[in-house]
Amino acid sequence: MPNIQVLDPHVADLIAAGEVVERPASVAKELMENAIDAGASTVTVEISHGGLTFLRVTDDGRGIPAAELKTAFLRHATSKLRTEYDLEAIGTLGFRGEALAAIAAVSRIEVLTRTAEADLGASLALEGGVPGGIEEAGCPLGTTMVVRDLFFNTPARLKFMKKDAAEGAAVFAVVQRVALSHPEVSVKFIRDGKQELLTPGDGQLKSAVYAVLGRELALGFREVRSAGEDMSVEGFASMPACCRASRSWQFFFVNGRQVKSPLMTAALEEAYKNQKMVGKFPGCVLHLQTKLNAVDVNVHPAKTEVKFGTERTVFSAVYHAVLSALEGDPSHPRAVLRNTEIPNIRKQDTVTPNQIRMSAPASPFMGEVARRAGGGGSSPPSVRLTPDSSPTRGEPKPSIPTVVRVHDSTYTPPRPTERPVGAAALGRPPASAPSLENGPAKAPAPTGFSEIPWRLAGEVLNTYIIVERGETVYLIDKHAAHERMNFDRMRGADYDPMSQALLTPAVCRLSPDQREVLLAHRALLEEFGFEVDELGADLAVRRAPFDVDAGDIPAALEELAVRLLTAGSADPAAARDELLHTMACKAAIKGGWHSAPQELEQVAAAVMSGQVKYCPHGRPVAITLTKKELEKQFKRA
Ligand code: ADP
Ligand code: MG
After folding, report:
1. Contact 38 CB / ligand 1 (< 6 Å)
2. Which terminus in the chain has less CB density within 10 A, N or C?
C-alpha cells in the first residue's frame, strides 16, 4: 500500500536547493544578484578552492534589518514581490525568495549586515539551514555573506563537483557576466587571494567591457545602438574580421538580467551572414531593454532563461541593431600600422601589430586605450626571436612571408630534371629558406606514377595551385595539402615544434573555462611549442612554435581550448589529437593569402608524389581536370 506523506521540510529544502544551487557558481550568481537588488555600488566576490570551501560576497547595499534576518533565510521569503500581479512585471533580479534558503540548506553560512537606520549591525550563523542566534556586531553599511563547505551535507552532489580550478572558472564566468550586466556596479573578483577582476563601476558599458573582456577583444568590437518604440538594443558586437573560435564571447542581457537566449544568438549571427568566416562566431555584449511585462522571467529556477511576448520583435530588434552597426563603417577595416603609437596599458600587455592592423580603425575602444594609458607612452612592437625575424612581419596582410613555412623533411621533392618550374620560373630569385635546407631527405625516392614529370603552372585566387602533368591539370588546395603535411610531420616521433621565446609575451584573454583547460594541459601545450603562464585573468604566452604567426597566437590558443573543451579532454590521447589537428591547421599556409613560390612548390611536390591525398579532415587536397574533359567542354572533341 502506498503511504503518501508530505515530506519533512528539511528534505523538501534539500530538494529545492538542488534546483537553485547546482555548484559554487550558482551561489555566486544568487548572492551577487541580491547585492545588486539591494542597490550596491560595489560587490566583491572572494573564493577559495573553487568556491567549495569558501565563498564570500560583500556589498555596500542597503543591508537587512536585524529583525528580518532570519526570515530572509526562509523559503519563499522575499521583499521583492507581494502579489501575483507583481509577477507580471518583475524589475528585480530576484523574486522567488528561494536563494538564501537553498544556499543555507546545503552549506554553513555567516552573515553580517547593517542598514543605514541601525548603528550596529547584526550577525547570524546557519548550518545546514538551521539558524543560530542573532547577535549585534559592528560593521559597515551593507551585507557580507560567507558560504563555507558547500554541499557538506549532500555528498551525492559534492561528488559531482569538478576540480577546484574548473569550479573557480565557472564562478569567474558568472562574476564577469554580472559585471557586464551592471556597469554601474564596481565588481571585484579575488580567487585564492589573487585579484582577477575589477570593473570601475562608472556606469559606462564600455568600461566594463574593457575590464572584463580585455583590450584585444574590445578593439575588435563595433558599437551597437538602436532604439525602437518598445525596445532598445545597445552594446557591442564583433567586427566580422574579429570573430572568434567559439560562442564564449556572446553576452546577452534583458533588462539587466543575464540570459541564455538561442533567439538572440540566432538574430546576432544572422546579421553576419556572408560576412564572417565559416566556423567563427561573433562576440557581443548586448543589452536589450524592454517593458517589464514584455518578458516572462519566471520560467527557470536559475532565472537564466526568459520568454519573450513577441519573439519576432526581439529577433528583428537585435538583428537590425547589429546589422546597422556593421554597415556603419566599412566591414573590412583599412590596414593601418601603428607599432609605436599604441600606448601600453600594462607592462606585459603588448599590442602586437597584428591586433592593431585588424581592428584599429573602427573600434570605439581606441579612445579607451589612450585614456587608460594616460595618453602617453609607447610600446615596442612584439618581436619574435626567429632566425630571420625581420620588420616586415608587422606589415599589413596580405604580405609576402619572410619565412618559408613548408618543412621539407617528410616529402621528397621531384628530381631536378622533373622540376621545370619553381621560384626562378616565376621570375623571382629563390628566397633563403632555412627550413627547406635543414630537412634531411628521408622519404624513399618516388616511384611509378609519381615519376611522371610535372610542371607547376601557377596559382589562382591565392588558394589553388595549378599543376600540369601529362594530359591532366591538377588544382591543389594549398592550405588543405599543407595542413596534411603538417599533420603527418607533427605526428612523427621526432617532431620538434621549434619553440621560440617571445621577446614580449603574447597576452591572451580567454574565457575562464578556456583558460582553465589550457592550464590543465600545460605539458601537452609545451610538446607543441607553447609555454603559457597565468597572468591575472589572462594567459601569458612566453614561447610559441616557430610556424605560428605572432598575431595568430591568441586565436590559436582559443581554438585549442575550444577543441579541448568540446572534445572532452580527460583522455590524454584524444586531447593530443585535438591539439595536433589545430596546430596542423594553424601552422599551414592560408588560403587567400600570398605564399612564397617555394612554399607552393613544396606543397605541389608533396601532392604530386602521391603521399598527400586528403587533408586531416578527410577532404581531398586536389582535384583534376583532364585534357579530354576540357576538349569536351570546348566542344573540340
Ligand atoms: P529573493 O532575492 O528572490 O527575494 P533571496 O532568498 O535571494 O530571495 O533573498 C531573500 C531576501 O533577503 C531578499 O528579498 C532581500 O530582501 C534580502 N536580501 C538578501 N540578500 C541581500 C543583500 N545582499 N542585501 C540586502 N538584502 C538582501
Ligand atoms: Mg535573491
Report:
1. yes
2. N
Least confident of 11-20, 231-240, 395-404: 395-404
Helix H or strand E encompassing 539: strand 538-545
622 neighbors 474 (Cβ within 8 angstroms)? yes
CB 453 within 8 A of CB 471: no
pLDDT in tens, 376-424: 333 333 333 333 333 333 333 333 333 344 544 444 433 333 333 333 3
Q: Which domains does the chain have, with CATH numbers?
A: 9-203 (3.30.565.10), 214-327 (3.30.230.10), 333-381 (no CATH), 404-637 (3.30.1370.100)
Q: Tell me, what's the pLDDT at 31?
A: 97
Find, among 252, 227, 269, 240, the residue nearest to 329 by Cα.
240
Torsion-angle region of 612 (φ positive above 0: left; ψ -120 to 50: alpha; else: beta): beta
Residue written as grid cell 625516392: 445
Tell which phi-psi region holds residue 322, choosing left (phi > 0), alpha (psi between -120 and 50) or beta.
alpha
Residue-level length of the chain: 637
Average pLDDT, the chain: 80
Ligand 2 mean position to 78 CA, how many Å?
8
Distance CA 36, CA 178 (A): 9
Give 332 Cα–ligand 2 centroid separation in angstroms.
44
Q: How confident is the model at residue 19 (pLDDT cuts 50, 70, 90)?
A: confident
- The answer to whether 139 and 113 are in contact (CB under 8 A) is yes
CA of 302 to the centre of ligand 2 (A): 10
- CA 172 – CA 519 distance, rounded (Å): 15
| Nearest protein Cα to ligand 1, atom 12 | 72
| pLDDT for residue 245 is more than 50 | yes
- Write out pLDDT tens, residues 600-619: 999 999 999 888 888 887 78
Bridge pairing between strands 250-254 and 231-238: unpaired
Cis omega (within 30 of 0) for bond into 398: yes
Q: Is 274 left (phi over 0), alpha (psi -120 to 50) or beta?
A: left
| Residue 260 · residue 305 · CB < 8 Å | yes
> How many degrees, rounded to 5, is the angle at CA 463 between CA 457 and CA 466?
20
Q: Are strands 54-59 and 42-48 parallel, antiparallel or unpaired?
A: antiparallel
Is any ligand 1 atom within 6 A of the Cβ of residue 95? yes
Q: What percent of the chain has pLDDT over 70?
A: 80
25 C-alpha to ligand 2 centroid (Å) = 14
Q: CB of 74 closer than 6 A to ligand 1?
A: no
What is the per-residue pLDDT across 466-478, written as a single tens digit (0 to 9) for each? 999 999 999 999 9
Q: Is the CB of 317 under 6 A from ligand 1?
A: no
Q: Global pTM?
A: 0.72
Under a CB-based contact definition with an 8 Å cutoff, are residues 364 and 218 in contact? no
Among all chains, which residue has been given the C-alpha cell 581550448? Answer: 561
